[in-house]
Amino acid sequence: MTKIEAADSPAGGRRLLALDAARGLALVAMFVFHIVWDLGFFGLIPAEWPVDPGFRAYGHGIAASFIALAGIGLVLAARQKPGWRPALLRIGRIALAAAAISAVTYVIFPDEFIFFGILHLIAFAGLCALPFLRAPAFVVAGVALVALVLPLFVAAPVFDQPLFWWLGLGTDAPRSNDWRPFLPWFGVMLAGLLLGRQILSRGLPGRMDCWQPAGLFSRGLVWGGRHSLLVYLVHQPIFIAVIFVIAKMAGPQHVMGGDPFTQACEAQCVKANGQPGYCKRVCGCIVQQAQAHNLWRAVLANKLSDDERVRFTDLTRTCARFEADGGAPP
């Protein structure tokens, strides 16, 4: 989640600090989102919180703000440094960062690695948006609208193949820790581009340039927005390391976040065999084993693939068998 780089003020070649501050606010919102996700991953808060529909909508809102700001930055940067070469250099830096994210997450989360996340989208959509910098406004608005609504009408199973995952026209979302497909998000990029053109046409950069950060918090926002790509790349490793240490210090504990699933599991089990103690152990075992085998988030989101569903069924049978024998699953 980042800018496309240098949103300088067209007047005097200075940076537009208000836009940097806006990026900084988006970074703060992103920090909150990732901290909650990390806490759920390590079992320090209920694991269903990060996959709650409301919280996921919050994440989509953060992504939309970054992508729109990238569109605005694309316009202002093109005004400050016109030509294809500066634009391609800016986009190339983001593409390299996106490739690094893919490589690292493939090693850590091979089943959910980031193959087309926010950085991939901003780089590719930014490249595709360059021809629209000087296109008529009605053309840009029309293409943006089509990009936003096309997935609602054209989505089909043929696009569920891995080759087309980046496009966003499939009927099922692929497993990934950050997936921002080209459609509909390209429409958000173009909307930001249109807004950036309005900012220029109304002479707002000159007036916005009068704003100066007055306190430590606002200066921090400006600094973060100015270095948003760097902040994006380093913040999650830091968060994960700190929360991992906290989780280790807290010691082994029952997996939090099994409540809704566990309640339903225990209710069905008791209805079937009438043994509350046994059912509590079996359902607790299922939750722990699902998390240990990297299936828990898919279970909560009800997005198990066919292969994962088979594995999950095997886990439930294993837990039932070992708990019936008074043991524990290997």
Number of domains: 2
Report the uncertain regions: 1-13, 252-258
Number of helical regions: 13
Shape: elongated
Question: What characteristics describe this protein?
Answer:
330 residues, disordered N terminus, mainly alpha, 13 helices
Description:
The chain is mainly α and 330 residues long. It has two domains: 231 residues, no CATH class; 66 residues, no CATH class. It is elongated and about 75 Å long. It starts with 16 loop residues before the first helix and ends in a 6-residue tail after the last helix.
Q: Which secondary structure elements does this structure contain, and how are they paired or packed?
A:
Blueprint: H1 17-41, H2 53-80, H3 84-108, H4 118-129, H5 137-154, H6 182-201, H7 204-208, H8 216-226, H9 228-250, H10 259-273, H11 276-292, H12 296-301, H13 306-324
Summarize this structure briefly:
The chain has about 325 residues and is an all-alpha fold. The chain is built from 13 helices and no strands.
